[in-house]
Amino acid sequence: MRKEITRKIDWIGVNDRTTDLFEDFWPLPEGISYNSYLIKDEENALIDGVKEGFTEDLIGEIGFDGDGLDLDYVVINHMEPDHSGSLRSVIRLAPDAEILCTEKAKSMLGGFYGITDNVRVVKTGDTVTLGSRGLEFIETPFVHWPETMMTYEKEDGVLFSGDGFGSFKALDGGIFDDEVDVQEYSDETVRYFSNIIGAYSATVRAALAKLKGHEIEVVAPAHGLVWRSEPEKIIEQYSRLSNLESDPAVTLVYGSMYGFTERVMEAVASGARSVPGIDLKVIDAARTHPSFTLAESWKREGLIIGSPTYEARIFTPVEQFVNLATKKKLKERKVGFFGSYGWSGGSVRELNAAAENLNWEAVCDPVEFNGEANSEKLEEGFALGETVAQAVAKAG
Ligand SMILES: Cc1cc2nc3c(=O)[nH]c(=O)nc-3n(C[C@H](O)[C@H](O)[C@H](O)COP(=O)(O)O)c2cc1C
Ligand SMILES: [Fe+2]
Ligand SMILES: [Fe+2]
């Protein structure tokens, strides 16, 4: 597909509606787009590519003339194969095109694809002129990988931002923020950020600071919408997410094998609800992919976790979420824990350890019970929910 972004600059991306799991793990119920861009001026540049299976679509849009591709430059903002998978075929058809990328990307080019010729390393501030269009490169390490950079087109202020400012969800008909209801992309942006970029929140903040001196008229990421009407909206959303800013609301994540923990969960949920105006999201960890549980928890400041003890540890599906939250550095949460055990316990102890690791603030004592909770423990559960909800309501 092709769509003009501004004179001489086209979006030539693809929608992937059939891959079930991004990076073989993250569900894609609404698909994803791989956004590639083509600048046709006195010299022509391709910016980023697509996943391997979509290579033919990309080559068709660049314009295969039976002989080769009329490209002078191939800019690589990011080496992950969801963007670079098409590279080998493109280079085969445009053997004289110069590849522009960071030093780290250069060594990956050799490792991933055996490409070593015609590679020019660029650094922050380096520029390339294509005619009326000029490109400036900005190294943004760890937005998502160490080799990542962004490319800024100076005439029209178009920022080709790679994974930065990206989102899950295929582009349904419109590619621009003003063509769709951006609200429909918001949740998938949170899930993309928390799942893919979240662990690198600090380097995202560094990148945002680096971009401050640039007039950004259009944000053109490698996934999701192109922001031409309100580019500040996606920049603001990424700023909030990378600063771990969240809503005064509570996520309650639990698991329960035989219903003992679930019974207390109901009391905890009622307690949280008793605080006026508090938004509460209850998630059964065993029936929800941790991708979604992580995204929901990224949105809300309050996080309550309930788990039975399973072989001296946290119950597996809850543990899977806690491990993911640890890996993705979900910090700045106000938390409360509860859990059941049969003999020596362990789930609450391990939840406390995870909290320490992530600097979570426990706003009340955990509620722990042997088997079925008695009425006193149910009351403690209610109080736990209420206390966490009050803590985030106050902070908000
Ligand atoms: C497979 C399995 C493993 C368990 N492992 C432990 C354990 O290591 N230590 C412990 O104190 N209780 C253990 N228990 C007991 C449960 O933690 C206890 O029965 C709890 O009340 C179950 O709560 P639930 O109904 O919410 O799952 C185990 C139970 C099951 C079914
Ligand atoms: Fe990536
Ligand atoms: Fe990507």
Question: What is this entry, summarized?
Answer:
The chain is of the alpha/beta class.
Record the SSE blueprint:
Blueprint: E1 3-6, E2 9-11, E3 14-16, E4 21-22, E5 26-27, E6 32-34, E7 37-40, E8 44-47, H1 55-62, E9 73-75, H2 81-84, H3 87-93, E10 98-101, H4 103-113, E11 119-121, E12 127-129, E13 134-139, E14 149-153, E15 158-160, H5 183-197, H6 201-211, E16 218-220, H7 231-242, E17 247-254, H8 260-273, E18 279-284, H9 290-299, E19 300-306, E20 309-310, E21 313-314, H10 316-327, E22 334-341, H11 347-358, E23 361-362, E24 367-370, H12 375-395
Parallel strand pairs: 8-9, 9-10, 10-11, 15-16, 17-18, 17-19, 19-22, 22-23, 22-24
Antiparallel strand pairs: 1-2, 2-7, 3-6, 4-5, 7-8, 12-13, 13-14, 14-15, 20-21
Helix pairs in contact: 5-9, 6-7, 8-12, 9-10
The structure holds flavin mononucleotide and fe (ii) ion (2 copies).
Flavin mononucleotide is lined by residues 256-262, 308-312, 340-346, 371.
Describe the structure.
The protein is α/β, with parallel strands linked by helices and 396 residues long. It folds into 2 domains: 240 residues, Metallo-beta-lactamase, Chain A (4-Layer Sandwich); 149 residues, Rossmann fold (3-Layer(aba) Sandwich). Helix content is 35%, strand content 24%. The protein is elongated. It starts with a strand and ends with a helix. The mean pLDDT is 97. The site of one fe (ii) ion has 4 residues, from loops.
